[in-house]
Amino acid sequence: MDFRELARLATQIENGASYPQDLPSGEGLIIGVTGPPGAGKSSLVDALTAELRTRGKTVAIIAVDPSSRATGGAILGDRVRMQRHYADPGVFIRSMATRGATGGLARTSALLSRLFRSAGFDFIVVETVGVGQDEIDIAALADVTIVVLVPGMGDDIQAIKAGVMEIADIFVINKADRPGVEQTQREIESMLAAPPAIYRTIATEGTGIVELLADLEMRRRKHHLPAEPRWEVDHLGIAVRAIDEALPFYTEHLGIPVLTREIVAHEKVNVAMLPAGEARIELLEPLDATSTIAKFLEKRGPGIHHIAMRVPDLPETIRRLESAGVRLLGHPQRGAGGHLYVFVHPASTGGVLWEIIQDDKHL
C-alpha cells in the first residue's frame, strides 16, 4: 500500500467511512506513548523512530493533538515536530485532532492503528494529547503503553496516580539530566505493587533510547510468537509384574474403578487404566521377556515407568522439540486406547521417560 493510498484511506476513516474489511490484519506492534504535557513525548517518539530506522524498521506515527477552535484540525501538527522523518519512505506520520473526544485519543485512533498495522508497518506509535489522569484510553488500544514523566513532578505524580500511572507497561523518566531523577523513580516504584520497567532518557540527545528499544523489541517478539503448546498430564505409567496382583490396592483399598483393560500387541503389554482426577493411572504388565516393560522390571523392579503429557498438536510439538535438540525415541505410533504418541529419551528430560500424546479433542 503506497502512502498516497494510505493517506486517502486514513482520511476517509477519519471522516466516518467504514473500515475496509478486505485488508490483512498485520503484525506490527502498537505502542502507546502518554503522559502529562511537557514530558517530552514527541521528542521521545522522534528519537525512537530515528533509532528504529537505523535498524531498518518501518514506523507509522499517529500524533493526537488538541483541536483548533477555528478549523477543528490538529493545532500542533507533529509533522513539524518530526520533520526530519517526513520524507523518509519508511515513516508515515499522521496528525489527528481530538475533535472533542476525551481520554487522550481521537475517535478513530484505534481504526487508524489497525489500518497502519494492516499496511505492514513494524511499529505503530500512538502519541496521545497529554491531558493528565483521564488519559487512559490508550491502554485499550496499544499492545504496550509507555508513560512518560520528568524529574521534579512531585505532587503531580500523586495527582495522576489513579489514571495513567496504573496503565503503564513501561515508565520513561525523560529529561533525566535534571535534578530529582532518583526521587521520581522512587515515587513511581512506591505507588505500584509490581516493580515496573523504568528507563531514563534524554530524548533530545538520544540517551537511553537503545535500552528502551531493546525492551520494545523483546515485547514485539513475544507479541508474534505462537502460543506455547498447552501441556496437561494424561497419565502416569506404572510397571507391575502382574496387573491382577496390583489391582486390589487401587480397587479395594482406594476404591478406584478400572476404566479399561486391553492388550497392546506391538508393545507386548497388558494395560489397565484407572481414573485419577483429570488424569489416569496406567498399569503395565509385560506379556513376554522381550517386552520393554519386562526389561524395565528386570533392571529396576516395579515402579513408575513414564509420565505421559497431552498436547493439542503432536506433530508441531515434535517439530519444536527436535529443532531444540531434544532426543526422541522412534516415531509417533498408536498406543492403548488408540492414541498417537511418541517417547522422549530420559537423557533430555532429567532422567524420566516422557510420553507425549496427541489430545484426541484436537485430532
Mean pLDDT: 84
Low-confidence runs = 67-79, 100-104
Largest β sheet strand count, sense and barrel closure = 8 strands, mixed
Total of DSSP H or I helical runs spanning 4+ residues: 11
Strand arrangement in the largest pleated sheet: 9-10-11-8-12-15-14-13
Tell me the CATH architecture of the largest domain.
3-Layer(aba) Sandwich
Q: CATH superfamily assignment of the largest domain?
A: P-loop containing nucleotide triphosphate hydrolases
Assembly state (oligomeric): single chain
Could you tell me the number of beta strands? 15
* CATH fold assignment of the largest domain: Rossmann fold
Beta content: 25-35%
Structural class: alpha/beta
Q: Roughly how many Å is the radius of gyration?
A: 30 Å
What's the shape? elongated
Helix content: 25-40%
- The CA-CA distance between the termini, in Å, is 39 Å
CATH class of the largest domain: Alpha Beta
Strand-and-helix sequence, N→C? HEHEHEHEHEHEHEHEHEEEHEHEEE
Q: State the domain count.
A: 2
Structure in words:
The relative contact order is 0.10. About 5% of the residues have low confidence. β2, α3 and β3 form a beta-alpha-beta unit. It contains eleven helices and 15 strands. The strands form two sheets. An eight-stranded mixed sheet has the order 9-10-11-8-12-15-14-13. Strands 3-2-4-1-5-6-7 form a seven-stranded parallel sheet, sandwiched between helices. α1 packs antiparallel against α4. It folds into two domains: 222 residues, P-loop containing nucleotide triphosphate hydrolases (Rossmann fold, 3-Layer(aba) Sandwich); 131 residues, 2,3-Dihydroxybiphenyl 1,2-Dioxygenase, domain 1 (Roll), CATH 3.10.180. The protein has 363 residues and is of the alpha/beta class.
